[in-house]
Amino acid sequence: MKYHGACSCSMCRTEFETDLPLSDFQPRVCDCQYCQQNLGQLLSHPSAQIRVFAGIASHLTANKNGGTAARFYHCKNCNDFICVGVEIDQEMRGVLNSNLFNDRATLGDAIPVQPRFLSDQEKFDRWKKLWSHLSFMS
């Protein structure tokens, strides 16, 4: 199944492809200052595919937060928070801001997470285990 969404100005569109219904997912709400300011409810599954339809150079900005290699992507036009991505074992992995989904009301209740208490290695291990495959499409 493919679930779609877009930022406020529709310059960045998203697709989350999974075999599971959205009602099986509980987005994660990170308690760090960056995520709280950017109102993200993050969604991933290790077997899911996330596609962001926007040329990185043309419609997305990438911000770094903290000491890890993860990048936080925003629409250049409306500044909506789109996703977080990191390269792990020569592959892009990421989480998608589920607030952008057209069908977000069918998601389960959000659960809080506190990755700021994890070491960088623990974060990478967690991301490798939980995050989806991430692609940026023009």
Overview of the molecule:
This protein has 138 residues and is of the alpha+beta class. It has a single domain, classed as Beta Complex (Metal Binding Protein, Guanine Nucleotide Exchange Factor, Chain A), CATH 2.170.150. The chain is 15% helix and 39% strand. It is built from three helices and eleven strands. The strands form two sheets. Strands 1, 2, 4, 5, 6, 7, 8, 9 and 11 form a nine-stranded mixed sheet that branches. A two-stranded parallel ribbon has the order 3-10. The model has no long low-confidence stretch (mean pLDDT 90).
CATH architecture: Beta Complex
CATH topology: Metal Binding Protein, Guanine Nucleotide Exchange Factor, Chain A
Shape: globular
What kind of oligomer do you see?
single chain
Q: Which parts are unreliable, with pLDDT below 50 for 5 consecutive residues or more?
A: none
